[in-house]
From TrEMBL:
Designated name of the protein: 4-dihydromethyltrisporate dehydrogenase
Assigned keywords, A-Z: Oxidoreductase
NADP-dependent oxidoreductase domain ranges (all copies): 23-301
Alphabetized PROSITE patterns for the sequence: ALDOKETO_REDUCTASE_1, ALDOKETO_REDUCTASE_3
Pfam families linked to this entry: Aldo_ket_red
Active site per database record: Y51 (proton donor)
Site feature (Lowers pKa of active site Tyr) residues: K80
Length: 321
């Protein structure tokens, strides 16, 4: 069997290449969806404060542990610090709430969700706080530098509350700055990656720094149809004729090809589905062997179209420019 994990640099922890994303899972479905995913064989679960379902996802995990389907140490649990909690006085409080919501004693990986320090919102007022301060119509930033936020992240490792820390949606400059002062370098970078947006140069450089990469939105516009105009108008990669031809050639579905595309680059994937058949097929990608012609076709799809972009959502923040 092909290697099914990435080894994290500092701890040597083995992070599964095939994980399960918790974004956009309805609260009413989350507990059972996660429970079923564990039964099917998923061992990495990727969540976030902003997803608004951490309590329910945690219930699914703890149900599976209680019933003996899996041991805690066999799972790799990832979640993220939201933008409104970057201040050095709020990181630990936000983390503690998330750990309690999941019903766990530690996380395997804790990420800074975006390099965007937004004005603090009291959880008693709004939780998850999302992007805007209540009643505001524009983003409100606060003076919470990443170096202070990262120092608090490192304290979580030192307290043995999370085994690893990392970042999401950081570009090269933000990571380069972080590496200049971090005592514990990020173990993982999580970014949007699919054939339309392969981000080859960033991935190559990050991996050279000993930082592993996780891809989100492996299916391109699929998750953004209800969120932005480009999600509605851009052709689905799952229905793309070239991807279909490769899938037919290997007798698999298009989703499996798109996930295998990332694995071939030593990039972990975190697809989400509430449908059991799709859960199984998204996991069944280890033995697919793409050849040079397949990769050439997939590489030709590059347009640099990004879907998870604050500019697209009307926030007026050119984060990736």
């Amino acid at each position: 069997m092909a290697v099914d994990y990435l080894t994290l640099d500092r701890t040597g922890d083995k992070m599964p290449l095939r994980g399960f994303g918790c974004w956009k899972i309805e609260k009413k479905d989350a507990e059972n969806t996660i429970y079923q995913a564990i039964k099917i064989g998923y061992r990495l679960f990727d969540g976030a404060c902003d997803y608004g379902n951490e309590v329910e996802v945690g219930r699914g995990i703890n149900k599976a542990i209680k019933e003996g389907l899996v041991k805690r140490e066999e799972l790799f649990i990832v979640t993220k610090l939201w933008n409104t909690f970057h201040s050095k006085q709020h990181v630990r409080t936000a983390f503690d709430r998330q750990l309690k919501d999941w019903g766990l004693e530690y996380f395997d990986l804790y990420l800074i969700h975006f390099p965007i320090p937004l004005q603090y919102v009291d959880p008693a007022v709004s939780y998850p706080p999302e992007w805007y301060v209540p009643h505001a119509d524009k983003l409100n930033f606060e003076r919470s530098p990443i170096h202070e936020c990262w120092a608090e992240m490192e304290k979580l490792v030192q307290a043995k509350l999370t085994r690893n820390i990392g970042v999401a949606n950081f570009n090269c400059q933000a990571i380069l700055d972080l590496l200049s002062y971090s005592k514990i370098k990020p173990a993982v970078l999580q970014i949007e990656i699919h054939p339309l947006l392969p981000q080859e140069r960033l991935v190559k450089w990050v991996q050279e720094q000993g930082i592993q990469v996780t891809a989100y939105s492996s299916f391109g516009p699929t998750s953004y149809v209800d969120l932005c105009e480009s999600g509605k108008t851009y052709s689905s990669l799952l229905a793309n004729a070239d991807v279909k031809s490769i899938a037919n050639k290997h007798n698999v579905n298009t989703g499996q090809i798109l996930l295998r595309y990332a694995l071939d680059r030593n990039i972990a994937v975190i697809p989400k589905s509430v449908h059991e058949d799709r859960m199984k097929s998204n996991l069944d990608i280890l033995n697919i062997q793409l050849d040079q012609d397949d990769r050439k076709i997939l590489n030709s799809l590059k347009t640099n179209q990004r879907f998870n972009d604050p500019m697209i959502f009307g926030f007026g923040l050119p984060l990736f420019d």
